Amino acid sequence: MITKPDKVGAVLVVGAGIAGIQASLDLAESGYYVYLVEKSPAIGGTMPMLDKTFPTNDCSMCILSPKLVECGRHLNVETITNSEVADIQGEPGNFKVTINTKARLVDPDKCTGCGSCAEECPVKVDDDFNQGLDKRKAIYKQYAQAYPNAYAIDATRCLKVKKPKACGKCLEVCQANAIDHQMQDTTLEVQVGSVILCPGFEKYDVSQLWYYGYGKLPNVLTSLEFERILSASGPFGGHLQRPSDGKEPKKIAWLQCVGSRNCRNEHGYCSSVCCMYAIKEAVIAKEHTKYPLDTAIFFMDMRTYGKDFEKYYDRAREESGVRFIRSRVFEVTDTFDGTGNCQIRYSNEDGTITTEDFDMVVLSLGLEPASGMVELAGKLGLELNKFNFCESPSLTGVGTSKPGIFVAGAFSGPRDIPETVMQASAAASDSAADLADVRGTLTKAKEYPAEKDVSGEIIRTGVVVCHCGINIGSVVNVPEVVAYAKTLPGVVFADEKLYACSQDTSAQIKDAIQEHGLNRVVVASCSPRTHEPMFQETLKEAGLNANLFEMTNIRDQCSWVHMKEPEKATAKAKDLVKMAVYKSALLEPIDGVTLDMNHDALVIGGGVSGLTAADNLSKQGYQVYLVEKSAELGGIANRLRFGMKGEDLPVYISELVAKVNADPNIKVYTGVEITDVQGFVGNFETTLSSGEVIPHGVTMIATGAQEYKPTEYLYGQNENVMTLLELESLLADKDSKVTGAKNVVFVQCVGSRDAERPYCSRICCTKSVKQALKVKELNPNANVFVLYRDIRTYGFFEEMYREARNKGVIFIRYTADNKPVVKAGADGVQVTVTDHVLGIPVEINADIVGLAAAIVADKDTNGKLSQFYKVPLNQEGFFLEAHMKLRPVDFGTDGVFMCGLAHGPKNLEENISQAKAAVGRACTVLAKESISVEGKSAFVNERKCAGCGDCEAVCPAKAVQVDATKKVAVVNEALCKGCGACASTCRCGAINVKGCTNQQLIAMIKAL
Amino acid sequence: MERDPKIVAFLCNWCSYAGADLAGIGRIQYPPNIRVVRIPCTGRINPLFIISALRHGADGVLTSG
Amino acid sequence: MQAIAAQVKEAAKKLLEDKKVDLVVGFAEGSLPLRGTPLFARTPEEADQLTWNRGCENNLANFLRKREGKVAVVAKGCDVRSIVALTKENQIDRDNLYIIGVPCDGMIDRKKIGKLLGGKEVLAVEDQGDTIVLKGNGFSETAKVADLLHNSCIDCRYGNPVVYDALIGELMPEKAEEDFAEIKEFEAKTTAERRAFLAEEFSKCIRCYACRNACPMCYCTECFVDCSQPEWIGKSAADVQDNILFQAVRVFHGAGRCADCGACERACPMGINLRLLTRKLVKDVKVLFNAEAGVSMDDKAALATFTADDPEPFLVKE
């Protein structure tokens, strides 16, 4: 008898870019142990290199770094850097993974990241992170905020690696003894239940395209080089200049589709992200200069198809004055006048040739699949597409050809950050779905001794001042600071440490707590952002509440920034210690808050997104209530006949509906709406129009969207004019209208990209091209015309666009101010459009006019739900996520998630992926036994509170409400994030924040 | 006094405080007369903090978030 | 005016007779002419004392917070704006409040009469519409009402109640936008001049907190200035800096909430020009957030709400 091997409650995540980080965090928070394997010495991937991110212009590093810290510190994420997966054996539920680790030559557990070694290292190397625009040392940290916060040695460049007797300067200065040039490569084997591949992408190698002049002309740069130039942490500190001569550029051009949409070098696909990043770079570059900067983007089709992207494009054009030049670029040459400027020769749309000179040219490089994955994919038998991107089976969103192995991010096709994050959460959900039985079997939790009661005790503060090797001690007079600390009120112990963060110091702090009966601890060392949790851990291990700890930063914000003024730096360090000591005297223990929670999920909307979410939640072992407004399940997909890859959708949907209906874990309600909602995460109570009240822990909003009913182009007045969804059934039924048609016309952007709906509906270009091909297939003699503004067949859909052109589909571009005119004719309808090449009106007697009607939100339903669950909508009535980049399915309100068209237009495959992502996020909540929060929340002094409700108005987490009867504000600690906006708004001083009270902050101020 | 003003800075833990850390990592030198108060969010800054700082002898207050 | 007074009386009596309300808050004649005094009428008989004249300057919103039972109020434009603001702050239950709105084109400032008459005491007045006859021992002088109005009334654009359940009198035509001339003049001064001016004004302050008590929006259980943990600012009137800070923060706390009724300034026994500060904030809130206090039940708190179309000219883009 063959017994199936036991399932393993751990997951392997390959690649630690934003996808890997997100997937790891979601899984670790959902009860699985994660091995996160990363090739380079630090996690982060591409995001840390980017300056700002579209469409919010958030700083990339700023939004990423909290995730880096969280992932790096997570007890259930084992980060394995400098490593690659060599092999994966076994079957879904139980894989054996072989991981090869290259010797880092620095022990990350010992290294404190102080950087003394790099200062001494004599070997300068091109800095890859800065795209070679400047130098780093042979011992280096990938970037300032890197995790692990530890250095690594570039073995190919280190002198001592080459000759053991040479150099060794780093060894001399490293007081932590972290460096070991003899460290060996290792191999590790781990058991996991499933695998997520998210190796990211590589940038296109532009040297293949000589005519862009890259490498030859010093002022032709890649887009990634330009990101580094813009970045404040980049080679020029954020000063916009030419790397070649330091000159401030007055004119910059961006060239689109470099290595994309180009069949000649087997890059026929669209890289999907370049249009947006080029616009962003142009807008940000303009913000950088004090002088007027001329920016021009040379493009073929402007593909701003994502959520809020079109508005970003509009603003760039109309407000920032970025020039957009629809063109084909022939070549970039030197201007040959000694300025180093570049000349672009290009063809306009009408075929005329123009040249223009620029100070700098930025090549918008396309995305290529991760080259290192081809070998592993071969070994695993993973199917790749012809470009070597991973081929996901249809309508799985994140599947691969191998069960138990999933994919997220750019490995399965070029995509931007929010879609990557969505896929990561989706892959987390899918990879966990089959492991629900072993959830929580491998995760670790820490146990602490019972907490000492310090209430009523007199203040006994201990102060530890850190030398950080020589990082603090060489500038700040540490013994003097220690002596000063001893004079401060309440301080009964003060000492100096070489490294406050070392293991032995931790033990010494614990001893001091016992020996001196300390009930407050102050550490003056580096940044609390990286080290506070570690010291708090020490307190907990010594039986003190973690919040009896205060930390002050005398390194990053003192010794490092006042290196030439040691006396003043010492005085500052004393002040900072004094402030911390004064605050610490007022610190009080903060207890975590634990609340019961309901582990059922409510899914609102029975379309494909809602069905997928319900199905997936059920697989994870949770009870689901699925509520659909209409009488039947399936949503708008019931009107679809084939998918973008030709899938038979009616079959797919009927199977999905049947599966959900048959699932004992899913209770389906049709023909009902939501009439009232009470409660919050873990404790929702939703009332249905039937009167039934459903208690549930999380809410998933999947209300879908509708097809816009056109009022233009004779729609509704002439039977030959129809929307794409209407045409779809004619095509599927092989209707004689289609098979007998002579001329078929598709009109794009009907109700999209206009003043009323200033967004792109994303899927219509691809759908039209798909249908155009279908017409050609059914009726090869028909003339098919697609009237468009920009063809937005992003990603691999570009292949379909090319196929359509090859098969004779005629594409005619029109402009927003000169739209096609549709008139009723004797035989069908007459369509007039001005051809963009010829510049003259073309008349087509069409038998069928297919209108690519916009996707519009159901404003009424969404508006109601928005109020019920306290979640926002955007101007167009779609739900607005917590963060457009990194929290694409979450809301500011905890426990509420969304997916599908309710979030914004996207295709079925993407909706499925997003539904799974929402489940992935919801599972991080549902996996918890109870709701527990740190407790650093706001609290109300009822005696002082006048109940004016300003706190309620400003609270971004919707955690405060004025009690209707008591007329005082009440804080829901489960929801409060402790930001303190309430406390600074309150005129009466009635609301305050634990761990950061008015009294504590004023004590710090008065200490000065 | 004008030559060496005392400045109190209220910095948000998530952005400006991190920015000040980054200045340190980059060894960007700046005058040592600034005293940083770390807060959980710029929203935590009660206007009264600013007034208190000025009242207790600060010559300038920097809020950043 | 007398006709309106009669209608007010009648309306109030009816409400009390019909038991629609338990209390009517309005004005009774004071001990001296043009010194209307708040009246709390619980019976139709008591309501007989109600009146309406050019001396009904108090902001009655001050007496409506957190009242039990059904209450009616005789309210002019500024009272109603404060009522609206207080309602939105959960201090007044609109369902339990009946507003007898009275359009108001201004109340008379007794200080201006004093100036006009060189301090002679007025013992009786005769309201003749646009003019008023001031009578005292051995004199009778006719003056233009417009010359005697409170400055806050001259600046007021909301003499018509923005919300009411019954209206007495006729709505007045809308006034032109305010020009905030005196505020602009103040803003044009140098920092040193402004500092000197404020120091001069607030050296008068005796910290009696009459401004705070008169203000319908100053209702904190514990004012920040009385707080000891932490002690935000000093409590002694001897320190002019603390006096300025007290008033600055009090005024700031009124930002987007202050209806510019002028009650604080009228209450100040030291004659401090408080409206200069309150109106500066009124102007700032208008310019920066396009908001005015208490003019609509639907407007959100100006300082507690972000809207994408806030003008926010203070955001400087480099």
Description of the structure:
The complex is a heterotrimer of chains A (1008), B (65) and C (318). Chain A contains 26 helices and 51 strands. Chain A is of the alpha/beta class. Chain A has seven domains: 1-102 and 187-200 and 370-447, 3-Layer(bba) Sandwich (FAD/NAD(P)-binding domain), CATH 3.50.50; 104-184, Alpha-Beta Plaits (2-Layer Sandwich); 203-367, FAD/NAD(P)-binding domain; 461-585, Rossmann fold (3-Layer(aba) Sandwich); 601-704 and 858-930, 3-Layer(bba) Sandwich (FAD/NAD(P)-binding domain), CATH 3.50.50.60; 708-855, FAD/NAD(P)-binding domain, CATH 3.50.50.60; 935-1006, 2-Layer Sandwich (Alpha-Beta Plaits), CATH 3.30.70. Chain B is of the alpha/beta class and 65 residues long. Helices cover 29% and strands 26% of the residues of chain B. Chain B contains two helices and three strands, in the order E-H-E-H-E. The mean pLDDT of chain B is 90. Chain C has three domains: 2-106 and 158-167, no CATH class; 110-146, no CATH class; 181-304, no CATH class. Chain C has helices at 2-17, 44-47, 77-88, 110-116, 145-148, 151-155, 181-188, 191-202, 210-214, 240-253, 263-267, 274-289, and strands at 23-28, 37-41, 50-51, 71-75, 97-101, 124-127, 131-136, 139-144, 166-167. In chain C, the strands form two sheets. In chain C, strands 1, 2, 3, 4, 5 and 9 form a six-stranded mixed beta sheet that branches. In chain C, a hairpin with an 8-residue loop joins strand 1 (23-28) and strand 2 (37-41). In chain C, helix 10 crosses helix 12 (274-289). Chain C is globular and about 55 Å long. Chains in contact: A-B, A-C, B-C. The A-B interface holds A 59, 62, 65-66, 115, 144-145, 232-233, 237, 527-529, 553, 555-558, 560-565, 568-569, 571-572, 575-576, 579, 936, 954, 956, 978-981, 983-984, 993, 996, 998, 1001-1002, 1004-1006, 1008 and B 6, 8, 13-15, 17-18, 20-41, 43-49, 52-53, 56-58.
